[in-house]
Structure to design on (372 residues):
């Protein structure tokens, strides 16, 4: 083990997902790439996503109080990155994916994405440059062939892992949670 | 493309990190495994982590208004999982890692973890079963040999990717963010 150094405060997380935040803005579906997303609660099921206040997507969430998180696959890196570098304010992104709607009616879901998380806005927290949107998961939509035993299957989805401005595949299995810890000996 | 099916509402995210939430509880360092963590804001830098209300760790965060997120490496799967299946309320976990303290003085940092994110509590949101703790990043501590050009380096850290109760390695690079999207053609 080498020594510790300090790097200063920065917005860091080791690994992140790459999702498309779907919202209807001015009546049209729009998708924005986000990596700062995770689960916020088990019961009721909630997720959260941090979005820069100036983003076009934020307008749509504020307007409809609904949004979606669409999980992208590693074979969708180009579309995923395109939705991250292009703003809906000057480019219509409604044709990048085929949109459909679920229970809420106003949260666009991207047909081509293997999993779509349909959310009703629960709360938003002003964190400075970003708003942290917390949404209750109202429904999970998934491609039939991305599901095993009623749950999304990571090996069928092949989701993008995002870190340090790079997209990665998920690698080899290294352990089982709620199990491997039993081997620990102090 | 096959058809879409609905799976019902559930707390789902495609891929997640595995971090240890460090907090001092009753004066002793304690580490709890969490996967529901991400960045919440760029400026000021903030991170968030969802923790079940009944967790011992929650007591420590409420008491000190500080916590840490410690990034674990794939070679620490056993210790990581141990801290997830064992509660500090009935087992002293202070000896699993060597603790040190940074600027805040009350957020324990695990020496053996390649990156330590030291946080001051900014806000907590009651989401039902879980509290979403949002913390301002006060300092990033890292092993010298886990850093490249002043930033944590994923290839040196080899962080754990968590999904569906399984730990994974980070796989092959599949693309460059803020770049590959330029190839998109509609």
């Amino acid at each position: 083990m080498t020594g510790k150094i300090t790097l200063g405060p920065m917005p860091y997380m080791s690994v992140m997902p790459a999702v498309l935040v779907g919202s209807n803005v001015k009546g049209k579906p729009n998708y924005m790439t986000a990596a700062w997303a995770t689960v916020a609660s088990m019961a009721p099921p909630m997720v959260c996503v941090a979005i820069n206040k100036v983003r076009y997507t934020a307008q749509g969430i504020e307007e409809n109080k609904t949004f979606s998180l669409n999980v992208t696959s590693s074979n969708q890196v180009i579309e995923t990155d395109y939705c991250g570098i292009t703003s809906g304010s000057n480019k219509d992104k409604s044709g990048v994916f085929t949109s459909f709607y679920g229970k809420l009616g106003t949260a666009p879901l991207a047909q081509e994405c293997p999993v779509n998380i349909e959310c009703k806005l629960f709360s938003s927290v002003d964190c400075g440059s970003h708003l942290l949107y917390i949404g209750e998961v109202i429904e999970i939509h998934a491609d039939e062939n991305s599901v095993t035993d009623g749950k999304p299957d990571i090996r069928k989805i092949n989701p993008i892992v995002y870190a340090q401005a790079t997209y990665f595949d998920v690698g080899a299995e290294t352990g089982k949670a709620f199990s491997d810890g039993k081997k620990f000996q102090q």
